[in-house]
Amino acid sequence: MQNIIIGFILLISLLGLVGNGVVIWLLGFRIKRNPYTTYILNLSVADFGVLICLIFTAISKSVDILNGRNHFDYLYFYINFDLFFFAYSTSQFLLAAISIERCVAAFFPLWHRCHRPPHLSAIACALIWILSSLLPAVNITLHVTNISFTHDVLFQLIVNVFLCAPLMLISTLTFFIKFYSKANQLQRGKLITAILLALLFFLIFAFPLNLIYIILYIFYIHFSFVTLLSLILIGLLCASLNSSINPLIYFLVGKRLRQSHARVSIKVALQRVFEDEQDCKREQNIKSESLE
């Protein structure tokens, strides 16, 4: 059973690595930057890091199984997991920032359009990366110097569960109610749909690993090693799905057209999802004027 789960983790992570790599290339070098592409670019980088750590974990565990070993090299295990949870937590903080930004834009559209600091997205992303790196940096330093082998990722996961998740839920629900209560806004919902789907799949796939790790951390003495490893692998499988599915969401949402038979490139699909809202409004005005 563990071999099957590890195989799925490896396959999904490799596919997700390709998808996030394409998104990083297009948003970083081929598509005009706006506040939301800055967030999504950083989110794709964080997911890319999550998937790399998962690939190394799956490969190392496969080698252990082939060699008949049933344990990890503890130093490698802790360092790799610190890096994994660093990228994993960063992606959650970025999703929280995106949901809050959308909520503010819905409730205060005039301020968001006219008075929003131009580099707010870049500053917010930089702060998120710095804050997310503090605890893993301390842990890795302690592990490398053999000062301590205690693992304090629990505190980071508690922050994810009791801070990030409530912020995402509250801001997303309020924004969803605000946005979909106005029928005239339904015409420009590609970016909204992509964000809501990303948050939905986060709750389905990413959130369980937080709870699994916290439960195992507190009640680990009640579980056998095989049970512990199986539960962790299930959580990692969910995390690989979460980090791999976002590029597919962007493409499918951007590809959605009234003419279902039309062929759309990945670049065009991403442009349709992340185009600036003012451009969307301008396109709507042009369409309405042409109809008149």
UniProtKB/TrEMBL annotation:
Superkingdom, taxonomy of origin: Eukaryota
InterPro entries, alphabetized: GPCR_Rhodpsn, GPCR_Rhodpsn_7TM, MRGPCRFAMILY
Record's keyword terms, sorted: G-protein coupled receptor, Membrane, Receptor, Transducer, Transmembrane, Transmembrane helix
Main localization of the protein described in the UniProt heading: membrane
Intracellular or extracellular location(s): Membrane
Residue ranges annotated for the G-protein coupled receptors family 1 profile domain, each copy included: 19-250
Transmembrane segments: 6-27, 39-59, 79-100, 120-142, 154-179, 191-219, 225-253
Membrane topology: Multi-pass membrane protein
Pfam family, one: 7tm_1
PANTHER family: G-PROTEIN COUPLED RECEPTORS FAMILY 1 PROFILE DOMAIN-CONTAINING PROTEIN (PTHR11334:SF69), MAS-RELATED G-PROTEIN COUPLED RECEPTOR (PTHR11334)
Protein's recorded name: Proto-oncogene Mas-like
Organism for this UniProt entry: Pogona vitticeps (central bearded dragon)
Phylogenetic classification of the source organism: Eukaryota, Metazoa, Chordata, Craniata, Vertebrata
Encoding gene, per UniProt annotation: LOC110091081
